[in-house]
Automatic annotation (TrEMBL):
Gene3D superfamilies: Transposase IS200-like (3.30.70.1290)
GO molecular function: DNA binding; transposase activity
Domain Transposase IS200-like: 9-153
SUPFAM superfamilies: Transposase IS200-like (SSF143422)
GO terms under biological process: DNA transposition
InterPro entries xrefs: Transposase_17 (IPR002686), Transposase_17_sf (IPR036515)
Protein name: Transposase IS200-like domain-containing protein
Record Pfam families: Y1_Tnp
Signal peptide stretch: none
Organismal lineage: Bacteria, Candidatus Roizmaniibacteriota
């Protein structure tokens, strides 16, 4: 199997994405999305030494001290800058914080979700393609435009019919950018800093390209 066309370098930022096998619509089911988001939250930390499925088996006092380490940013193997879950695939913008951080993160979340899915559906085998895709993001312009592309996916694919409803799509970090909250899983500061930390400017940047991206998406599928 050919190797990755570029190394994943600590301190650098990448667009990471992968598809389900046979275009299985895993993320059209809210319960599956909720589970995948739990995996994302948990396994971004290198302190996650216990399987997520075993977390509730810990006694209350130990679990609290353990979770305090999980949520500490100093323990994050990756910083999650954006994400979107689509029925048959997912997108991230990730910053790698330690060597092999991205590869370990993706492996852990996919393996955890696969175990959950197979047990729930009395099945076996992988549910995601073996090798995730990665594209380096090396400029501020790339970072802005890739974040917009990822956030517009629900609209350009037709999942969201009205662009004004994009912020209500639950499985995307777009809401984290336009409805800031301490509970957000994303570290939005790096992208919002490119818009002078103005949430409205970022929203205008995304929405202003919505119909163009939707047209490109329609043309892409028309050519197949």
């Amino acid at each position: 199997m050919p190797g990755r066309p570029h190394p994943l370098i600590t301190g650098e930022i990448y667009h990471i994405y992968n598809k389900t096998i046979n275009k299985n619509k895993l993320f059209s089911v809210d319960f599956n999305c909720e589970k995948f988001m739990e995996d994302i939250w948990y396994y971004r930390s290198f302190a996650s030494l216990i399987k997520l499925s075993n977390l509730n088996k810990l006694n209350v006092e130990f679990r609290k001290s353990y979770l305090d380490k999980i949520v500490c940013k100093d323990s994050f193997r990756v910083s999650i800058l954006t994400y979107t879950l689509m029925p048959t695939h997912y997108h991230f913008i990730l910053k790698q914080n330690q060597d092999n951080g991205i590869s370990n993160f993706i492996s852990l979340i996919q393996n955890s979700f696969t175990r959950f899915y197979n047990i729930k559906n009395n099945s076996n085998g992988p549910v995601f393609l073996h090798r995730f895709k990665s594209k380096p993001i090396t400029t501020e312009e790339q970072l802005k435009h890739t974040s917009r592309y990822i956030h517009l996916n629900p609209y350009s694919s037709g999942l969201i019919k009205d662009i004004s409803d994009l912020g209500e799509y639950p499985w995307s970090s777009y809401k984290d950018f336009i409805y800031p909250s301490k509970e957000n899983i994303c570290e939005t500061n790096q992208i919002l800093a490119l818009f002078n930390n103005d949430y409205f400017r970022y929203k205008k940047f995304v929405v202003g390209n919505a119909d163009y991206q939707k047209t490109l998406e329609m043309c892409k599928y028309a050519e197949k």
